[in-house]
Amino acid sequence: MVATEYTEVVLPGKVEPxxxxxxxxxxxxxxxxxxxLVGVEATGVSFAEQQMxxxxxxxxxxxxFVPGYDLVGTVLTVGPGVGPELVGRRVAAxxxxxxxxxxxxxxxxxxxxxxxxxxxxxxxTAVVNGLTAWxxxxxxxxVRSGQTVLVxxxxxxxxxxxxxxxxxxxxxxxxTASARHHDALRALGVTPVDYRGDDVPARVRELAPNGVxxxxxxxxxxxxxxxWGLLARGxxxxxxxxxxxxxxxxxxxxxxxxxxGRVWLWNGLPNGRHAYFFNVWAGRALSRxxxxxxxxxxxxxxxxxxxxxGISAHIAVELPLERAAEAMRLAESGTVAxxxxxxx
Length: 344
What we know:
This protein is α/β, with parallel strands linked by helices.
């Protein structure tokens, strides 16, 4: 039976998770020229949505809006100018917002095909998380076999993919996480460090006396300074968030600008080390075609690794889209490992 209505979850303003609004019975979007209508099979909760509900994501749209940073689904219909062969194909898309819905109209050029053998929920764990991890590891830090890397939040959405990709690249991985996740990390081949109970810089120096070749830091704040200090000569720091400031008040731009300032300053020092602030959307404004080409190529690499077992999908829980508030609350609790997936 073909759907004639759709459901979406709206973030109306700075609200607690329970303030999310579920809207049902809406008329289906009609794809415009160059667009397709995707029936969403899986979307997810990322750190971006946690910041957005606080009004603290760097370039979020004005309230109200539909959150949802990425999605996986099947093409149902196509708009003018789009080949009918896309209908029925399972695809993934990076959206930044709009993914928390049962149906979404998207530009066909922004879609990446999901290979046979990879389920929707599995693929969802690897869209923004996998793309971020792949590009930080291979495009920024350029990690090589035999190197040692430090991954903060090694049990999280991005971190869990990052450690697997780093291990697959032949690197030795040190990962910070709370103690309850250490056994799972050891089983992967990661050396865990308790970010709550240990002196993290001191412990990492014990494990890597000459410094580490790369650090991936989503925490920001004091952590970014410690991360820079742990680098070996020639090492690379990749900062990709400011989780430490999630609950702060005041300017949402200031934490990012402060990170960018540190990166600029550190890169000017004559010590052979490098620092980057990673943004998965970098380059899109300058050349959308180049951005899309890079996204398709890199995400295809991640999906191949997922299909062939080079990485595995870490799904914390699957919940119906209508229970987005519960999913958000669970994500913010810090008690789960892997991706929280919403299923319309």
